[in-house]
Each structure stands twice: as C-alpha cells, then as structure tokens.
Amino acid sequence: MPFEIFKQQFGELTEYIIQEASTGNRCVIVPELGGIVRQLSLRKNLTLFSVLKTPPTPHGLVQDAKSASELLFPFASRIPDGKYRFLGKPYQLAKNETGGLNAIHGLVRKKNFHLEEQSVHADYASLKLSFTLNETEGYPFEVHFSVEYTLHADGRFTLHYEARNNDSQPCPVMFGWHPYFQIGDEMADAWKVSIPSNEIVTFDSNQIPTGKEPFYLEKPTLLYRKAFDNCFIVAPESGNAVTELISENQNVTLRISQETGEGKFNFLVLYTPPARDCVAIEPLTANVDSFNSGDGLNILAPGQTISGTITVNLA
Prior knowledge:
Elements: E1 3-10, E2 13-20, E3 26-30, E4 36-44, E5 47-50, H1 58-63, E6 70-72, E7 78-80, E8 83-86, E9 89-92, E10 102-104, E11 114-120, E12 124-133, E13 143-152, E14 157-165, E15 171-173, E16 176-178, E17 180-181, E18 192-194, E19 199-203, E20 209-214, E21 221-222, E22 229-233, E23 240-247, E24 252-259, E25 267-271, E26 279-284, H2 290-293, E27 298-300, E28 305-314
C-alpha cells in the first residue's frame, strides 16, 4: 500500500508517522506533546526536503520554549497581563510568557492529546487528535478541540482544525499554528518571501496591537538583512491566501496556504528568529489580543463548531 501509519518511540515520547513509500513524503506527530508535527518531509523531483525546524532531541522538544510547530488554542500570541473581558466579565489567565508579563499561545501546548482516528487510503492518510478544555484557569468553558493531519498523494500536507463549544454558555476562540519553516541547509538570507497582505498591524513595545497601516513590499522580496516580527491582515475575499518561501538556488518554493473568509485564517504572523536559519509563518484566525479587541475573534454559541484548513506543499 502506498501509504502507511506506524508508531515508534522517540526517547520517552511516542510518535506517529504518516508515510508514503513511493515518494518518502512523511510527517511525524507527537500526540502527548500538544499534538505537534515534529517533522514534515516533502519531495520535489530527486530531493526530499525536511521543511520544519524543531528541536532535534526528545528532551529539547519537551523543554522547548519557542513553541516550535505548536497548536495555539483557544488564543494565539499575547494577552497583556493575562487579562481579558468577555461578555462584561473579567478573566485572569496564567502569565506564562518568559518574564511573566503576558499570557501567550493558548492552553493546549504540551498537553497530552487523544488519538481519535487514523485512516489509510490509496491517495491519502490522516491522523486525528483531540483535547478537551474544561474549567481551565482563566478560561472556564468546555471546548472540544481537534486537529486532523493529512498527507496526500499529490504532495500536499493539510492541517484541519475544529473547535466545538460543549458548554452551556458562549465562549471566545482563536486558533493559530506556530511552525518554523526551513528549505534545505540554506540560511534565510538566501530566500525570498511573498506575503499575501497589503496591511500590517502596528504594535506597542509589548507587541500588543495599537492599530493598522498600509504595508508596501515587493512580492516576492529578498529576506537578506530584513527582520520580521509582525502580524499582517490577509484579504478574506479570495478564499485562500498563500505565503511563499522561495529558494532560487535550490529551485524550490515552499507554499503555505491558509483558508480565508468569515471565521477563517484572516491574519498572519511572520517572524525571523535571530539565528536566521528558519522563518516562522503562523496563520491565525484572529488578531493578536483579540480576546480584548474582538478583532477577528470567533464567539461560539453552545453547540456551535468552527473549523479551518492550512495547506503546505512544495512547488
């Protein structure tokens, strides 16, 4: 069979591998560590590219504070001082950012996800994981969160998330994915990036939004000597927005597509780490600090579900 799913030990962690035998395309998933994708390898012609940068050891993965490949739910990025108001009521989240200033990146990081389903077919294989939030500090809502990873025969990797409000009251939700992408052994300064936006979020010194302004940059633009730690507004009309990382030396383009439209991934964070050996490209369903601003925030009624899809492929 061209696709298979198997599990193996990675130190004390158990990981699941979705693999296509004919191409070597594979993704490696760690349910007990926040359901993250530890590795994603995709082939173009004769070359198999490992496109995700994550800590290389089990200990490094467990201790990672940079959120490599993590699922950010029910909020992404920062909430200042961990405080927000929802339907007139104040809430206090744990201030878990380094330095203790803010709440950051949600409540499911490094949690033990439940393996709900695995499926192998002739042209794709998928793995579905879930975690239920219930009476969590600062977020007293019961929400069932799931993510389905799929590897397709045409070389696409998809991440499909879904959140269902199992509570008796409305709840705020936001989702983001936090992958660091790489292309071979090249440094980021050799790549070009094409950002699907003409509007950027302005931040204060605490990386909290203060407004928006026009964004003008050549598409694509060379990353050489450019540093990003920014949030962009993505036009939702197209139904799909694509960020491209381009290596002309290797003749390959990494495409990160995010579903846009009402309630979908209409925001995007781009970050170039100081080591400049990767680029974080983070599709978001709402703006930074949306729990306070409401900008893009999804509010789920009891029993309501929200979902969306991110796709990664090589061109």
